């Protein structure tokens, strides 16, 4: 299982950034393969989207600790997948730390190896794109939400950095 970490500074108050990230409905704004995310019961989330030209649907769990500005998640169908976002005050803005644990499916790992030189390199790129997309989404004024085309791509060669069953 791979462990991946990254962080980014965001020019918005930490509580505001966490409120944005912990609202499941905002996930499609920073996770490009996700088309719809919605609660599906107590502490549960359902995700729908498209990756590599194939639609997917996955369910998982989501825990938000508003006091600690921390969100954790995992997939019901992939026990080796999970992640955490933590938001901290940082000067006049916030610092977002993202960590993920996952094992790429063999065919996805082979594609990442071929296209990027290694799974680790592809995942580091995906983490950077995801964090850049979060920054863009959080720093874009509410009256002018970004179009999906304008957000940095968080997919490592077509695979989402979230509850994507293809990873």
Automatic annotation (TrEMBL):
InterPro entries: Polyketide_cyclase/dehydratase, START-like_dom_sf. It holds the Pfam family Polyketide_cyc2. Residues 140-167 are annotated as: Disordered. Coiled coil: none annotated. This is SRPBCC family protein. Residues 157-167 have a biased composition (Polar residues). It comes from Paeniroseomonas aquatica. It comes from the Bacteria.
